[in-house]
Amino acid sequence: MSSFLTIDPQYLASQYTQIERAGKDKVLANKANQFTGQLNAIRKLQTALKDFSTQLKDFRSGDNSMLANTATSSSESTLSVKAGAKAVAGSYEIFVEQLAQNHQLAMSFDPNATLATDGEFSIDLAGSSFSVDLASLPAGATLTDLTAAINNHVDNPGVKATLMRSGTETFLVISSEESGEANQLTLDFTPGADAAGADITAALAARQELTKAQDAKVRFGSDAAISVTSASNTLTDVIEGVSIDLLRAQAGTDGPVRVTIGQDEQAIKDNLQQFISSYNSVVSGISKDDSLKRDSMARSIQNQFRAALQGTFEGSSLYSIGIEFDRNGVLSINASRFEQALAADPAKLEAMLTGEDGMLAKLENTIEPYSKNFGLLTDKQKTLQASLDLITDQKKRHDYSMELAFRRYLGQFTQMQVTIAQLESSLGQF
């Protein structure tokens, strides 16, 4: 007699459980993928908006301003010049009478002589003083130890000590770190009981002034000149928006250096093109992302971007200065029209683009509610994350429910297996 077919309870329970759970697994997976895709897309959009906002701020201020200027010097060996966004086109005659200098004093010592073990070496810089107690130096201290004690002193207001050697002499050189007539150095020594202190007293009395403390002196203008003094060789507040580095003092027979400030038309166009590329990248990033295309907030941002560039600035449209949209909302620049606007009225163009009520400011205000750390896109991410967490919880509950179903099926098929075995055993007795 043939036996009944055997069954595998574990396998059958797994198959039946898989069939029962497949539908809901698919629904939960689709929802999880949807929320994950949306969350990643929103995060990417927020990052793009933050980067774009930073670029807009840079274009409105500082050295990265959209409206770049050029600056040239007729003698780069005498002075170099840089122009920022606030510089106004023009030319200037500059004569460098003298450069600013750091005060520098030198004292000569016998390198083989023993340094005094006591006494106070005092240094005053522009009214701020400190002292080094030689008794605090290590046993057998040398000029190297004194130099280190000066440089590392907690009250040092800006003094630098170094050692120089020439033949049989060692020089202790004391310098002010900042240039200018006000940064004058005064040295003093109060000897102690050690007779070797006389060497320091003698060196101090014979000190040499390597460079005197002095301000830079510059004349602006070839006829009725304006005199300017500066503690530094970098002039940043004499001509608005212009930085001048003084490199060499001129002789009386030298002619003045001509500095010319003008607009860098190519740099301005390059900056504008960089802005347009960034703008188009953000807008097209929304259009090309399926998750963002279906998101109402992302579409609102896209619409607000376009609205921000419509209307007039300083009474004129952006189209009038060569900035235009195509039918897909992509920005481009008409170089000929832009060049004409720049040549005709650069001040108006600057106000239209970078002014307080200009194009860049309007875009900044549009982006700000979305790009900031606790803005609308952050709230959107929290909502999406909460939805994703809910799906995760539902999946856990579903997994637990299916685990119970598996156990139920396993119990049923195990009982079936026992019943079949008993039936086979009963039939085998006949």
Keywords:
22% strand; 430 residues; 3 domains; alpha+beta; f41 fragment of flagellin, N-terminal domain; single chain
Query: What CATH first level of the largest domain would be assigned?
Result: Mainly Alpha
Gyration radius (Cα, Å) is 40 Å
Structural class: alpha+beta
Q: What pattern of helices and strands is seen along the backbone? A: HEEEEEEHEEEHEEEEEEHHHEEHHHH
Strand content: 15-25%
Q: Kindly identify the CATH topology of the largest domain.
A: f41 fragment of flagellin, N-terminal domain
Number of domains: 3
- Portion in helices: 40-55%
Pfam families: FliD_C (PF07195), FliD_N (PF02465)
InterPro entries: FliD, FliD_C, FliD_N
Keywords: Bacterial flagellum, Cell projection, Cilium, Coiled coil, Flagellum, Secreted
Domain Flagellar hook-associated protein 2 C-terminal: 213-424
